[in-house]
Amino acid sequence: MSHRTRTRPTGDRSRKRQALRDFASFGRRRLTPTTIILLVVSVLFAYNFVVQVVRQTQLEQYRDSIEQNVTRLGEENTTLERSVTYYESRDYAESVAREQLGYARPGDTVLMPTFPDQLSSNAPLIPAQLSPTRVNEPNWVRWWNMLRGVR
User: Fold this and answer.
1) What is the domain partition of the chain in residue ranges?
2) Which of 26, 82, 88, 132 sits a CA distance of 20 to 30 A from 123?
3) Spatial contact of 118 and 112, defined as CB atoms under 8 Å apart
4) For 132, phi and psi rounded to 5 degrees?
5) pTM for this prediction
6) Residue 97 — φ and ψ, nearest 5°?
7) pLDDT per position as a tens digit, 4-52
């Protein structure tokens, strides 16, 4: 009797079985610490990128509002400079002298209005008599009566 030892088949069958095992384990890889660390770092980079984009947008909006303020203030400054130039000119001094101080140039005709219906300074002033107010009437009724001329 001969004793035979059983050996593994090295033929085509063993290769097929190994290929099936490899195919079944495809996609089921274990998470290694390196993979976890790379995943965490990637998430942190993505978060930081989003924060930077939001901050950049806010800074651009702030810059635009500052530019608008600079433009508005520049226009206001130009207007004020023109006003200062006018107020320092001889034309403004002449208009103030004519209107407020009553001065006139030589050769100008000055017209002084007179009001004949004005009271003379000797006449006594009589205070106007006020109609008695009706407290129980609403305010709009009193206005209506006043505008109609009813006392």
Assistant:
1) 56-104
2) 132
3) no
4) -65, 135
5) 0.41
6) -65, -40
7) 665 555 567 778 877 777 776 666 667 788 989 999 999 999 999 999 9
